[in-house]
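During the second year of the project, the team shifted from modelling isolated chains to modelling whole assemblies. The rationale, set out in the original proposal, was that interfaces cannot be judged from single-chain predictions alone. As a representative example for this report, we include one of the complexes processed in the last quarter. Its constituent sequences, exactly as entered into the pipeline, are reproduced here:
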Amino acid sequence: MNGYNFAYLDEQTKRMIRRAILKAVAIPGHQVPFGSREMPLPYGWGTGGIQVTASVLGANDTLKVIDQGADDTTNAVSIRRFFARTAGVATTTHTAEATVIQTRHRIPEHPLREDQILVYQVPQPEPLFKLEPSRAEARRMHGLAEYGLMHVKLYEDITRYGHVSISYDYPVMVGGRYLMSPSPIPAFDNPKMHMMPALQLFGAGREKRIYAIPPYTRVESLDFEDHPFRATRAPHACGLCGAEDSYLDEVVTDDKGGRLFVCSDTDHCETRRADGHTGTELAA
Amino acid sequence: MTDETLLSARNLNLHFGAVPALVNVNADLWPGEVLAIVGESGSGKTTLLNVLSGRMAPQSGTVWYRDSEGVQSDVHAMSAPSLRALHRSDWGFVHQNPRDNLRMGVSAGGNVGERLMAQGSRHYGSIREEAIRWLAQVEIDEARVDDLPRTFSGGMLQRLQIARTLVTHPRLVFMDEPTGGLDVSVQARLLDLIRTLVRRLGIAVVLVTHDLAVARLLAHRVMVMQRGVVVETGLTDQVLDDPQHPYTQLLVSSVLAA
Amino acid sequence: MAYVAVKGGERAIDNAHRWLAEERRGNPEVPDISIAQIAEQLGRSVDRVMAEGSLYDPSLAALAVKQAQGDLIEAAFLVRAYRTTLPRFAAAVPVDTAAMTIKRRISAVFKDMPGGQLLGPTYDYTHRLLDFALEAGFTPPPPAELPTEAEEMPRIHDILGHEGLMEMDAPSDAEPFDITRAPMQFPAGRDARLQSLARGDEGFLLAMGYSTQRGWGGSHPFVGEIRVGTASVEIVPPELGFAIDIGDVELTECQMVNQFAGSKTQPPQFTRGYGLVFGHCERKSMAMALVDRALRAAELGEEITAPAQMQEFVIYHCDNIEATGFVEHLKLPHYVDFQSELETIRRMRADAEREMMQEAAQ
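Output from the structure prediction step:
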């Protein structure tokens, strides 16, 4: 791509973002404001994740980009192309081969390693935003660790529905200190963040915040002792590979209520099938 | 500050432009004692309450608080986090308008349980049980525990606010006209409740009111203020039965005349 | 029918872009519109794109308008994204609007003043009747005579300032906040707020300004002055040590005169609301001035009761590129999260049914 620096951003900007990342890693779960740049993709479409990836990407990295767990959803394709054009890095769809993985709304099923970085795209970094719309007040609450309001919300859910009704973007406590939004990953994925060997970075471009979970950090989903957190998934096996422990997409197959459940993580499903696993749909 | 007082203030001064709100005000509060600050509007009584509770800074003078370990702190020199923590645990503040201190979109149980959750309680069942216990103490039917305060009457809202404030067993509660705006019969019931709870739990109270009857019913001691100046202070019955200062005499006689 | 996993995202995108290019061109028998035509004859669109794209370059803005098929927010986005790639080689000296070459200058607070009321090219007094003669092409009549003597046009606010009636801003050499380099924190300073408003969406600011006039936090505004014209942009290169003119920009400036404030120590003065926009855009400059004044409520000791006075509400929502990005991102796949909601609802309904059956059995 003529006239543009490696990975689009100029070196000054990357340095500024890396400084923000270092601060974030030093204070796990704390939101660090940064001078987010206008990117050629719209706000809300991954500009934060892209800026973080652009700042940590090197010429020898291998990049994987997923959206909803799949490599070939249109926005994942668009972002992968962006980096292929501006950085010329190798790209892959295999989780195990990637060194940097940028993701929207899922954590890969395959466990990550110490030499990998997971970059999350974050639409709304403030876990308290629905309860307290003022960012100035929310900052005070984080600074004073005043999170009673969030527990009140969980209490109300249990009172009204019998259990917590939050199914994605389920709030977590990081390192026992900061309340954090894990981004809109399904609650099912929350346990993967706890003590993960890989570095987890979170970028919110429009809201201009970066935060991080260093490797092997405590990440605990909020709950009550007598209403513990449950990681739920559809109670089926993947129709293609037979997996019973992966997060599933529900595909509508006809207008008579026909449904097929398949792994949301396309690489996980393909790898299992290549290893000989099959589900009822393929066996039929 | 003597060894026994819970809260003491010396030489408080505060002017709003040319208007005097506090003029060389001193105050002392002992553990378990109810102190009423009475006066008409413009007397400075609400300003004094706000300064004593750290919500407003005086232009000169000091307020000291002695905590349960006997450690003395200057309320206005405390860090913001420490003061906020104090307000959530050892201190309480009952507002004249209960809506100022309740979450109208949260159930009664959630409102009462919030301070417990803020202090780290993580057992839903226990929090709800404690909330129900407190609703009973303030004479709210336990069946209302999951109801939203939107459906409560004015008197019930005030009682809910009191439950929400007392749930963490504060040692000191500030009250700003707690019965203001309520019907007379509702007021009487609420005053009775406050008196019973305060005596049973041994809570110290600083209470602001323009109503001498409220002072007489609840307070051990009373301070009379006029235009920022404390004109008279002493045991409630003594001050109200045998007022020395002309302004106090005026206040007392106005009540009798009505 | 066996399920075949959906693939081919790349091809779909390529085809979508080809179709878009076709639509953008329209009927090939109709002449292709030129950048010069857009810049010359759709000037107000170009001005809006420069203002909201926050970059002064009429031909670039015209290109963006063409590429975006006339969608002005999309065009502003193109300009903003381009702006990010430009290097900064200098900071200009603050533009002196008192020294503008004026083509339009009006005031609502005085009947007449030095320099007079100069209407300039305005729509204000046109009758809004569609002119079908324009369809057949248009040759304008020779322009009206401009005054040969360039009269002095002092700013109304300076005139009011001579009597001490208008609050004056204290001059400052401090570095202004730069919203493109540092993230906003609230409460935000006036410099950061004005920068946000200058690139803010015209429609949003218009509505916010309008709300202040209808009672949602108003302050009795008068138009002290609106001036439209060209101002020179100057830089002081360190090698030279004096200012040189590097070009002209067209600007619209609006100063509103608002309700007077005062205190025990300060006698009452009129307060100011300020609006400044690239190009010729009075509506935006006026709306900006109304909102600027409303956002000063806290510093002027006024109670904050209305949305236009709430800093976080106005500043967070006035950037239409952030707004459209986030609103339109809802089109992206969200089926993973939706799946979670489906499972949650199904489980809750199953629990409720089980309870009902248990109760019925008792």
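Chain A touches chain C through 67 residues (CB under 8 Å). Chain A has eight helices and twelve strands.
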